[in-house]
């Protein structure tokens, strides 16, 4: 029988929860809708124009994730350097003490405020415990990567022992290819995408040469169709159908760094494996950006860094995923003492006592200060949840696209913007890559920087990433407003 307190309090709690759900724009019902329909519905509900500043601020005021911005340090306009076309002495139109509009999380995420406490704990343990800090203290050095694993398993969709924290991204590409790229006379090619991050191409070509093959024959490059900007899934499947019997490894980016395309990892992995290929993925721009289910998608291996969407700081430690299907198989390894099981690692045995799964691919002990930073950032993801972040990300990116299409790409404007990122929200993450025409793209980029926008320029393409953890709808609105007013 329920208590009197339950009878009295429960209706109040239900009412409060009901209101919270009504105001939760990222609820499951909304997640079934196209992001543009959600934005339209909210504008109609509030009777506010979609293109007004009031609408952006209303979205921020009702945002269930608005508190997460306070978890990060946002650079001030006055602390950012300006481009070569800018007169640094002229700041008449900017407030140097105002937060910049930081749209560069696809390159380097912002610093979480809780990092400082995590670093201080490590420094305290080192100062007070010395070498004993390896097994004692707040975060024992010999297990410093352990706190990172639970959140990474969730973000990657991994099972026990499928994830390891180790090295950096490019090193991990090489380590995984040593084990999983095993070319034969009949099957020796590697399939990857055009305009992959250069380091991926360097690694692929060097591994091909290392095995005695010619990259001009063994490196198969996927390109978009003529006059298109990203690669169709059906074209990838068709190429695998035609050449799959000669391809040893498919190594694509989960999200393409240049175009922002989110590849269909599940479908491509299945098609590759049906043709006998190993399917590996570079998730540098995908982890912490979009939900992943690597175990269920049967991905053979993946590599990732942690300093972009995972906000761990420049050059911080990376990691790998290895599917449990491979745990009982024998692969070539480059071995080091950290690949041993924890229980026997410090016995200094002459022979390897290899750890289970991904842990057995490690070589050197991870850096305690890097893992301390990484773990602090991952705490935020555990508290918020990737599904909520993805829901907000879709809205932020769609809002940016809508404002540019309706406020910038008008016949009266010289400035024209072409999106080279897919328009389908399911085929992109928190990024729009914009090809600039009608004005000098570099001058525009520098004027934006001068006005307090931190973004990224690649030739005539400006990459903008509204990150759901710390960017706001007002950021998006103000960015587009600047695009409207800047004169080149």
TrEMBL record:
NCBIfam families: kynureninase. Keywords: Cytoplasm, Hydrolase, Pyridine nucleotide biosynthesis, Pyridoxal phosphate. GO terms for cellular component: cytoplasm. It comes from the Eukaryota. Pathway: Amino-acid degradation; L-kynurenine degradation; L-alanine and anthranilate from L-kynurenine: step 1/1; Cofactor biosynthesis; NAD(+) biosynthesis; quinolinate from L-kynurenine: step 2/3. Belongs to the kynureninase family. One of its GO terms (biological process) is quinolinate biosynthetic process. The gene is KYNU. Its cofactor is pyridoxal 5'-phosphate. The modification N6-(pyridoxal phosphate)lysine is found at residue 308. It is an enzyme of class 3 (hydrolase). This is Kynureninase. HAMAP family: Kynureninase (MF_01970). Pyridoxal 5'-phosphate binds at residues 169-170, 197-200, 253, 282, 285, 307, 337, 365. Catalyzes the cleavage of L-kynurenine (L-Kyn) and L-3-hydroxykynurenine (L-3OHKyn) into anthranilic acid (AA) and 3-hydroxyanthranilic acid (3-OHAA), respectively. It is found in: Cytoplasm. Homodimer. InterPro entries: Kynureninase (IPR010111), PyrdxlP-dep_Trfase (IPR015424), PyrdxlP-dep_Trfase_major (IPR015421), PyrdxlP-dep_Trfase_small (IPR015422). It catalyses: L-kynurenine + H2O = anthranilate + L-alanine + H(+); 3-hydroxy-L-kynurenine + H2O = 3-hydroxyanthranilate + L-alanine + H(+). Its EC number is 3.7.1.3. GO terms for molecular function: kynureninase activity; pyridoxal phosphate binding.
């Amino acid at each position: 029988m329920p208590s009197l307190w339950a009878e009295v309090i429960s209706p109040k709690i239900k009412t409060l929860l009901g209101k919270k759900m009504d105001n939760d724009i990222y609820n499951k019902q909304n997640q079934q809708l196209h992001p543009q329909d959600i934005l339209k519905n909210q504008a109609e509900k509030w009777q506010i124009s979609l293109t007004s500043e009031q609408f952006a601020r209303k979205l921020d005021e009702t945002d269930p994730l608005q508190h997460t911005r306070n978890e990060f340090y946002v650079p001030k306009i006055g602390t950012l350097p300006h481009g070569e076309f800018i007169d640094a002495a002229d700041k008449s139109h900017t407030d140097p003490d105002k937060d910049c509009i930081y749209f560069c999380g696809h390159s380097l995420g912002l610093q979480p405020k809780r990092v400082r406490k995590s670093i201080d704990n490590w420094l305290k343990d080192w100062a007070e415990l010395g070498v004993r800090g390896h097994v004692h203290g707040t975060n024992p050095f010999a297990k410093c990567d352990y706190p990172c694993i639970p959140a990474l398993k969730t973000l990657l969709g991994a099972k026990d022992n499928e994830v390891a924290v180790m090295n950096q991204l490019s090193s991990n590409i090489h380590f995984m290819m040593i084990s999983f790229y095993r070319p034969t006379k009949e099957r020796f090619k590697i399939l990857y995408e055009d305009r992959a991050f250069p380091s991926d191409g360097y690694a692929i070509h060097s591994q091909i040469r290392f095995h005695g093959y010619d990259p001009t024959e063994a490196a198969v490059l996927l390109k978009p169709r003529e006059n298109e900007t990203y690669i169709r899934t059906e074209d990838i499947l068709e190429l695998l159908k035609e050449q799959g019997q000669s391809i040893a490894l498919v190594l694509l980016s989960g999200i393409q760094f240049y175009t922002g395309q989110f590849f269909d990892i599940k479908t491509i992995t299945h098609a590759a494996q049906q043709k006998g290929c190993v399917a590996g993925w570079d998730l540098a721009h995908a982890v912490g950006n979009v939900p992943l289910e690597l175990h269920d998608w049967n991905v053979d291996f993946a590599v990732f860094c942690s300093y972009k969407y995972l906000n761990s700081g420049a050059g911080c430690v990376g990691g790998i995923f290895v599917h449990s299907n491979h745990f009982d198989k024998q692969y070539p390894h480059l071995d080091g003492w950290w690949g041993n099981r924890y229980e026997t690692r410090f016995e200094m045995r002459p022979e390897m006592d290899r750890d289970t799964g991904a842990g057995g691919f490690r070589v050197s002990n991870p850096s305690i200060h890097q893992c301390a930073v990484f773990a602090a950032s991952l705490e935020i993801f555990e508290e918020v949840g990737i599904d909520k972040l993805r829901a907000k990300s879709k809205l932020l990116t769609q809002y940016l696209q809508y404002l540019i299409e309706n406020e910038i790409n008008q016949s009266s404007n010289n400035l024209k913007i072409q999106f080279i990122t897919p328009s389908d929200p399911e085929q992109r993450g928190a990024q729009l890559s914009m090809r600039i025409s009608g004005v000098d793209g570099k001058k525009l980029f520098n004027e934006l920087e001068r006005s307090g926008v931190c973004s990224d320029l690649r030739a005539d393409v400006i990459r903008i990433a509204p990150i759901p953890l710390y960017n706001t709808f007002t950021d998006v609105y103000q960015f587009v407003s600047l695009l409207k007013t800047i004169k080149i």
